[in-house]
Specification:
Elements: H1 2-21, E1 25-33, E2 36-37, E3 42-45, E4 51-53, E5 59-65, E6 68-75, E7 82-88, E8 94-101, E9 108-109, H2 120-132, E10 136-141, H3 142-147, H4 153-157, E11 163-168, E12 171-177, E13 185-189, E14 192-193, E15 220-228, E16 240-246, E17 254-264, E18 269-282, E19 287-309, E20 316-342, E21 345-368, E22 373-398, E23 403-419, E24 431-439, E25 483-490, E26 493-510, E27 513-529, E28 532-536, E29 549-550, E30 573-574, H5 576-582, H6 585-590, E31 594-598, E32 610-626, E33 631-656, E34 659-684, E35 690-701, H7 705-708, E36 712-715, E37 722-725, E38 733-746, E39 750-762, E40 765-774, E41 777-786, E42 789-802, E43 813-833, E44 839-846, E45 854-864, E46 867-876, E47 879-882, E48 891-893, E49 896-906, E50 911-918, E51 925-929, E52 935-940, E53 944-952
InterPro entries: Beta-barrel_TonB, Beta-barrel_TonB_sf, CarboxyPept-like_regulatory, Plug_dom, Plug_dom_sf, TonB_rcpt_bac
Subcellular location: Cell outer membrane
Protein name: TonB-dependent receptor
Length: about 950
């Protein structure tokens, strides 16, 4: 690697010397359309000897040229190519063309757009960036995001080919590229990986997966999904990287705002949204400013049923009915400043602040067939996730405009915590739960005293399927039978901070080749912990009936979609105010509730507390070479060195004099590893409208934070003794990626594409259960390990086409469709202990977790003049969620198909109205146990919608 960098810098030095011996000239400018910059415009000389593209801010730079006249050709999707003659004389050395407009504004007029419409211009931006990108990339732009019924970043990216999302209470939260596990994909903000916060589901807790619902879509200028990266991108992206580029200042003074209101059918309450964006230029356009903000408040509700099954005979051990209601609020603010010292030098600042709050309430009934109990749980909590980011940097062109220097210093923080509900008098910021229970006798049991679904029922037993299943009691339970068992206060503490410094150098050796090299340092600090206080009732006669209660709220009919009637088993619950009053110090003292504190000094909770430091040093070198007028080669390598230090707790449980006891000791573990990532891309353009791409990349995925947690739980009481622990020595998962992609771009703004991909995997991380001999004693060890080998392969195809060849009215129609098929396999060691205590190892072949075999998006849209409408469908196939026991007991995510609708009408250049409808199919969330008929979880969210107005003030 050192030799690569030495060679690159030698070439830079050599060219630097050449620059002083022979003066070079350059042509620069910016291409705009109305108030927006145009990225991805191709600028070529007429003889194709020189070619470049405009950047995301619309600027372009042609360097290394001599005096003379140049016929420049400007090409952009949806516009007729045009020519412009530029004269380069002795002075000045840089010819600055200023703003060139494709739509005839105050700037120099180039030409008029071929296809006009509400959505056309923004599609042209996205497809132009995609077409000119050296990497295999899909792009969507801000204006298109605003025309889709998507209010957060996750729901915006689900429309991209090969992207699947995971939802939380009906809203998109996590994203996955090409069916890979979510933690194998990197989520970037302006090129830097976004710090994560603690997830709440089994799949994301302690992972590196970023929750995207905290990021309002109004703050996004572009979304770039790179499926095959280049060396100047962060390398931990096996599936791909999703880069959110925040908004920058518009071309001219702009102030616009939007307001919306709507309704959630499940909650039967309102939704409210608003946003604004202001941008302007000062000091003779040297200083540019943008400020944007958004607010989105929505009531939500979920009807949920869940079941737990015995892994041997599939008898139902418990069945739950959960009625969720809540209010989610997402607020965002972003600001940007840029000072253009001159056309060659710029410094900038960007800041981001988002705050996501989810106030969740639930009334739950758990019917335990093994414990012969009915438990009612009333809970409420407010979980907040904040993202704060700031970056300052600069771009400088020197050496006759041949050397570009880009530097940036960044600080990003996420903080997840528990907050106090607005109505609560109790000052504690805790998630509150109250639990009441009663002994019950269940009716209609099988001869063995167990409950089964009809598919698992023994001969002679009449049962029902999951959707129509209703627990049957021999005698009704009343609220006076439900006695308080315990109260719980739970806190969530999660903090993560990234401090980043980076430097990139790009040197244009000549018109056909440039070199690029750079370095990056990222220092990460993270902290996790979940303290809990439990208050146990030791005999006080406290029943639901004796407290302040409210009638069970069916939200128009609990689980009405299944047709099952649960009225006979759902009881009134205590009020939320009552829950808060139960947890006051005076009530706890008066009723002599026993307090159990589970903090870092408690054996039951110590393992949830850990901190970590991760330092990443990265460097890369690459070149981009034009081999011919049609063929381009991008090649290089990236090296990332990671140093880890984690601090946690060791918990040892043992018997002393016949009594169980536990010792807690502090532990510290460290490790380091290096990742060399060679990368090569070939881009062949047989005709102007077509790209054929080949890529080889080596990428990796670091272990989840929870996997690196050094905590050890050692239980010497069990036989055999058990050790459960993290594994700081884990290697990252590596992938050799091979990609082929072909793209054809239509003149009327559209694209057809087809690609295949193959990933050879090594060191896939999985949860291992094994047996080890330690000092002559056999221990059962549970810890994350690296598996043997694995692979993932698939293909994707898509088309976006306007039916402009049709006559008159029908020419406004268009179609979009894309499909991705993925299959995978990984080898996982399995260990068992026979009757003689001998350990046996076998190799099982499993599919990757969270990998859906089939994904597709489809849409029909109409865009004509001032009107646009779109109906879109999104399908995600079933996927393995959790490996547990044998394959008959695996937890699977069920297939899901959702449909959404959006429409927009523009009265004039200033005013437009919009309408959005989500979840037209009322698609449920499903998890199942081995067999799709044996559901473990079923959730319904109903329809939600929003209408509003956009106003361009100036």
């Amino acid at each position: 690697m050192k030799r690569i960098f030495s060679f690159l810098f030698f070439l830079v030095f050599l060219s630097w010397h050449t620059a002083f011996s022979q003066q070079q000239y350059s042509i620069t400018g910016r291409i705009i359309d109305g108030k927006a910059a145009l990225p991805g415009v191709t600028i070529k000389t007429k003889d194709n000897s020189i070619a470049t593209q405009s950047n995301l801010d619309g600027t372009f730079r042609i360097t290394g040229i001599k005096q003379g006249n140049y016929e420049l050709v400007f090409s952009y999707l949806g516009y007729e190519p045009i020519e412009k003659t530029v004269s380069v004389s002795e002075k000045p050395f840089n010819v600055y063309l200023g703003d060139l407009s494709f739509s005839g504004n105050d700037a120099q007029d180039i030409d008029e757009v071929v296809v006009q419409g509400i959505m056309a211009n923004t599609q042209a931006k996205a497809l132009s960036i995609q077409k000119s990108s050296p990497a295999i990339m899909n792009v969507i732009a801000s204006d298109l995001i605003g025309k889709l019924p998507d209010r957060n970043a996750a729901e915006a990216v689900q429309r991209i080919q090969g992207i699947a999302i995971e939802r939380d209470h009906g809203e998109g939260r996590y994203a996955s590229v090409r069916g890979t596990p979510m933690q194998w994909n990197s989520t970037l903000v302006n090129g830097n990986r976004m710090p994560t916060s603690e997830g709440t589901s089994d799949n994301t807790s302690g992972s590196r997966t970023s929750p995207l619902d905290i990021f309002p879509s109004e703050m996004i200028e572009f979304v770039q999904v790179s499926k095959a990266i280049t060396p100047d991108m962060e390398g931990d992206a096996i599936g791909g990287s999703i880069n959110f580029v925040t908004r920058t200042a518009p071309v001219s003074k702009t102030l616009k705002a939007s307001l919306g209101t709507g309704y959630n059918g499940q909650a039967q309450k309102g939704i409210y949204s608003g946003s604004f964006m202001y941008g302007d230029h000062f000091f003779n356009k040297k200083l540019s400013l943008i400020i944007g903000g958004s607010y989105w408040k929505r009531n939500w509700a979920t009807d949920n049923t869940e079941a737990v099954y015995n892994q041997d005979d599939f008898a139902m051990e418990s069945f739950e009915l959960r009625d969720y209601k809540g209010v989610r609020t997402t607020m965002g603010l972003n600001a940007g400043l840029a000072y253009h010292i001159n056309p060659s030098h710029k410094i900038f600042f960007r800041g981001i602040l988002t705050d996501f709050q989810d106030q969740e309430t639930a009334l739950e009934h758990t019917f335990s067939y093994t414990g012969k109990t009915l438990t009612q749980r009333r809970r409420e909590g407010v979980i907040g996730i904040g993202l704060l980011g700031a970056e300052i940097g600069g771009t400088h062109n020197t050496l006759g405009e041949k050397l570009n220097i880009h530097w940036k210093l960044s600080n990003y923080e996420t903080d997840m915590d528990t907050r106090k509900p607005s109505h609560a008098d109790n000052p504690k910021n805790t998630y509150k739960l109250s639990m009441f229970a009663s002994k019950v006798d269940y009716a209609n049991l099988a001869a063995d005293g167990k409950m089964y679904l009809d598919m698992d029922a023994p001969a002679g037993f009449q049962s029902s399927n999951y959707q129509s299943f209703v627990p049957q009691l021999k005698s009704a339970v009343k609220t006076s039978d439900l006695r308080l068992t315990q109260l719980i206060e739970l806190q969530t503490q999660s903090f993560e901070r990234d401090r980043i410094a980076e430097l990139d150098l790009k040197y244009q050796l000549n018109n056909n080749i440039y070199f690029k090299a750079g370095g990056k340092f990222k220092g990460k600090y993270l902290r996790r912990g979940s303290p809990m206080d439990i208050y146990v009732n030791r005999g006080a006669n406290i029943t639901v009936e004796s407290l302040a209660t409210e009638a069970y709220d069916y939200n128009g009919g609990f689980m009405k979609e299944t047709g099952a009637d649960y009225h006979s088993v759902l009881l009134d619950g205590i009020t939320l105010t009552q829950v808060d009053q139960l947890l006051t110090d005076s009530y706890i003292s008066e009723n002599k509730l026993m307090h159990i504190a589970r903090g870092e000094s408690s054996p039951d909770a110590a393992s949830s507390f850990y901190t970590g430091n991760e330092d990443v040093y990265a460097g890369y070198g690459m070149f981009n070479m034009k081999l011919s007028d049609k063929l381009q080669l991008i090649a290089g390598a990236r090296y990332e060195h990671t140093a880890l230090t984690y601090y946690g707790n060791e918990v040892i449980r043992k018997n002393v004099d016949g009594k169980p006891t536990a010792d807690i000791n502090k532990v510290e573990n460290s490790s380091k590893f290096g990742s060399l990532l060679p990368i090569a891309h070939l881009k062949y353009q047989p005709i102007e409208a077509m790209n054929i791409r080949l890529a080889y990349t080596r990428t990796f995925a670091r272990a989840n934070f929870s996997d690196l947690n050094p905590t050890e739980n050692i239980n010497l009481i069990f036989t055999p003794p058990v050790i459960s622990r993290g594994n700081i020595a884990l290697k990252p998962t590596f992938a050799h990626n091979f990609d082929f992609m072909s793209e054809y771009y239509f003149d009327d703004i559209g694209v057809a594409s087809f690609g295949v991909f193959y990933k050879k995997l090594s060191n896939v991380i999985y949860s291992s259960q094994s047996f080890q001999q330690i000092d002559g004693t056999t221990y059962r060890i549970t810890q994350p390990e690296n598996s043997e080998n694995g692979w993932l392969a698939g293909f994707e195809a898509g088309v976006s086409k306007r039916l402009s060849f049709l006559p008159d009215f029908w020419s406004g129609f268009g179609v979009e469709a894309n499909y991705t098929m993925t299959t995978s396999e990984m080898e996982v060691p399995r260990f068992s202990l026979d009757e003689k205590g001998q350990v046996t190892k076998t190799i099982a072949k499993e599919v990757l977790p969270n990998q859906s075999k089939h994904l597709f998006n489809t849409a029909i849209f109409y865009e004509k003049g001032k009107f646009m409408a779109r109906i879109a469908g999104n399908y995600k196939g079933s996927a393995l969620a959790i490996v547990q026991g044998n394959p008959e007991n695996y937890r699977w995510y069920g297939e899901n198909f959702t449909m959404d609708f959006s429409a927009n009408y523009r009265f004039n250049k200033k005013v437009s109205v919009f309408a959005e409808l989500n979840n037209l199919t009322n698609a449920p969330l499903r998890y199942y146990h081995g067999d799709s008929r044996r559901l473990e979880q079923l959730e319904y969210y109903s329809l939600r919608g929003l209408v509003g107005i956009n106003y361009q003030i100036f």
